Amino acid sequence: QLQLVESGGGLVQPGGSLRLSCTASGFTLNVYAIGWFRQAPGKEREGISCISSSGGRTNYADSVKGRFIISRDNAKNTVYLQINSLVPEDTAVYYCAAQLFGQCVSFYQYNSWGQGTQVTVSS
Fold first, then answer.
1. Which pLDDT belongs to residue 104?
2. Helix, strand, coil distribution of the chain in percent, nearest 5
3. 5-21 tens-digit pLDDT
4. Residue 1 has pLDDT above 80, yes or no
5. How far apart are CA 4 and CA 59, in angstroms?
6. 111 and 99 Cβ atoms separated by less than 8 Å
7. Strand order, beta sheet including 68-73
8. Is 75 helix (H, G, I), strand (E, B) or coil?
9. Distances from the Cα of 19 to the Cαs of 31, 70, 83, in angstroms?
10. Quick count: other Cβ atoms within 10 Å of Cβ 1?
């Protein structure tokens, strides 16, 4: 059974950084694109970054471009999202999801969602 587990969230001050992890179990991650999404209270879920199955293509939403960096370590079956220069508007639950043979061309058609990790940016 495909399962993704997010970790690394927490409380951070404005301007701070976190590294989120998305670890797969029950399947080999290297044939899946991974997308990172977030949902803030009262708002719709937003696709913020993705990485293709090979790692050769990445994409970022305008709201995080230049601050967030996605990467993957297929040997560890894990995708990372380095989130920097955090602002209160980044407060949300962050989720990852998988797309079989995905090429990271959009934030649609992702499956096998994790449970999410909370990121709170506050002084």
1. 93
2. 5, 50, 45
3. 999 999 999 999 999 99
4. no
5. 20
6. yes
7. 3-7, 18-25, 78-83, 68-73
8. helix
9. 23, 10, 6
10. 6
